[in-house]
Amino acid sequence: MNILYDRNMVLGEALFPRLGKAKAIEGRSLTAKDLAKTDLLFIRSTCRVNEDLLQNTPVRFIGSGVVGTDHIDFAATRTRGIQVAAAPGCNAESVADYVIAALLVIGERQQRSWQGATLGIVGVGHVGRLVWKFAEQALGMKVIGCDPPRQEDGDFMARDFIAYEQLLEQADVITFHVPLNKEGPHKTVGMFAGPIVRKVKPGAVLLNFARGPVCDNALVATMLGAGLLSDAAIDCWEGEPDYSPELAAVAALTTPHIAGHAYEGKANGTLQVYQAACAFLGKDPGETPAFPPAEVATLTIDCTDKSDEAVMRIAVRATCDIEGDTARFRAAFDGNVDRRKANFDALRKNYPFRRLFSATTLTLLNPSPTIEAKLTALGFQVIIGVTPKAKAKKPTAKKTTQPKAKAAKKPASAKKVATKKMTSTKQVAKAKVAKNSTAAKKVAAKPKATAKKPKAKVVKQSEAKPQKAPSKKTAGAKQVAKAKVAKTVAKKSNAAKKVTAKAKAKAVKKPAAKPGKAPSKGTPKAPTKRKRTPVVSKTHTK
Question: Do β-strands 40-43 and 61-64 pair in parallel, antiparallel, or remain unpaired?
Fold first, then answer.
């Protein structure tokens, strides 16, 4: 199986060799001689497929990895039984990203916001639907559409579409996203040409990211010069690879037909036709190769004092630099037609690596309540970050207010703490002394009540024997016993008072003692308890 593929087809080198012997070629210079032994042909829009190219060739399958098919002669392919596959919608998001980039640049150039402005979309297909979503949800624009074929097909989404003339009258921005139809009831060649352009709203902006012949380039240049159009962004040109130097000189943004050239746009186109070829041959397509990361995979934006459009402008410029593309296009201009054409193709072939908005993660600092939803609508991955202001306040407070306040209060605070501790210690000591003193006073104040206990014991001991009438001797013995008990109680009271006095002296001395100093040898020991001598009445001794 012999295969030829355009060398500008992303992933071609990884995918097509799976089907057979694959060779890369220049699509624009392809000839019938190159196809003499070719079974499968994979191309882009630069290759013109017609009767002359296919004559006497064994080609059975043609895969065109782009959206449009105006470069293919279907009559010639049908005659030879060649199956053709295209890639509709493969680069829709890439083109939609480019439209938003153009609007943001022109809005800044004109010092205006697109919030509330009217965008008129001519051709609401794969690209047009995405542009509608982005403009409405991210830029806050009012969107109107025109797509007669969809209306005729009874498309429910097309029920509110309006006529082309009405769109030209109402739109602040007109953008074309139609296929190139050279004839028929829905002819698109020369749509923006002739008397109908008199309907255009004065000062409108024109965008052509569809096909060059849709707009009369000379007429657009004239309208820009006369102020009937305020600005224009032109990516598709009549006569490509040649183009109008007059229009290129006056349009705000000019690029070499690369709106759909994001990596995903080209990769998806290649994948679609490769999978179609696998189905044609009955082969398993296998795994899809991984896409390389975006050059700006992550980006942090401080949204402080910035409008939503200003924040979007920063994000979009970092990921889709349409101004850089315009600068390179203008730098490659040459007065010689052949060199100009060659430069045009070289710019397309060597277009800088670009990924979709969705390949970039944004971290927003101090965002507005609405910007996250707008950037998410464009496809960006959005994270709300910690604001620098919140971080900056803490060290400022520590350096100025807090350290001074702490330094001034530290001595007073330390004194208060020390005073509180001393007071607390003294209070505890006083409480202990008072408690001991009170207990001692109670004991001293009630000697009779205390003396009842030994009396009760004596009585109980005497009650153990048979009761007899008390004699004079017994009464005398009892009086002696009472006197001894009273004497014992008095001794205990004096001992308690001494203990209390010693405890008081010890509590008072303790706070004044230096920390870590061992107590002196003269510190009195706690009094030991004396053995109680039992009191025995004389009656028992006898």
Answer: parallel
Catalytic residue among 93, 238, 240, 264: 240
N- to C-terminal Cα separation, the chain: 144
Question: 157 near 150, Cβ under 8 Å?
Answer: yes
pLDDT at res. 210: 96
User: How far is Cα 94 from Cα 263, in angstroms, rounded to an integer?
Assistant: 8
Which pLDDT does position 500 carry in this prediction?
A: 54
CA–CA distance, 156 with 160 (Å, rounded to integer): 9
| Residue spans of the chain under pLDDT 70 | 387-542
SS3 of 426-456: HHHHHHHHHHHHHHHHHHHHCHHHHHHHHHH
The answer to whether 184 and 159 are in contact (CB under 8 A) is no
In Å, how far from its chain's centre is CA 294? 17
Task: Let me know if 177 is a catalytic residue.
Answer: no
Task: Give bridge partners of residue 384 from the DSSP assignment.
Answer: 364
d(CA 178, CA 168): 15
What is the per-residue pLDDT for 156?
84
- Cβ proximity of 244 and 222 under 8 Å: no
Report helix, strand or coil for 386.
coil
126 assigned to active site: no
What percent of the chain has pLDDT above 70? Answer: 71
pLDDT tens-digit series, residues 385-439 = 976 554 555 555 554 444 444 444 444 444 444 444 444 555 544 555 455 545 4
Yes or no: say if 356 and 94 are a contact pair by the CB < 8 Å rule.
Answer: yes
Catalytically annotated residue among 177, 211, 348, 355: 211
User: What gap in Å lies between CA 101 and CA 309, rounded to an integer?
Assistant: 11
Residue 386: the pLDDT is 78
As a whole number of angstroms, the distance between CA 225 and CA 329 comes to 21
Using CA atoms, how far residue 59 sits from 35, 86, 177, in Å, is 7, 16, 32
> Tokens 């927003």 belong to which residue?
364
Give the pLDDT confidence of 441-493 residue by residue, as tens digits.
444 444 444 444 444 443 344 344 444 444 444 445 556 555 565 566 556 55
Active-site residue, selected from the candidate residues 44, 177, 257, 348: 257
HSE-up (13 A, CA, CB side) for residue 220? 32
Measured in whole angstroms, the distance separating CA 14 from the mean position of its chain's CA atoms is 34
**240 carries an active-site annotation:** yes
Residue 80's CB is within 10 A of a number of other CB atoms, namely 13
Beta partners for 217?
A: none
Instruction: State how far the alpha carbon of 287 is from the alpha carbons of 66, 89, 284, 290, in Å.
Output: 22, 21, 9, 9
DSSP-derived pairing of the beta strands 204-208 and 173-176: parallel
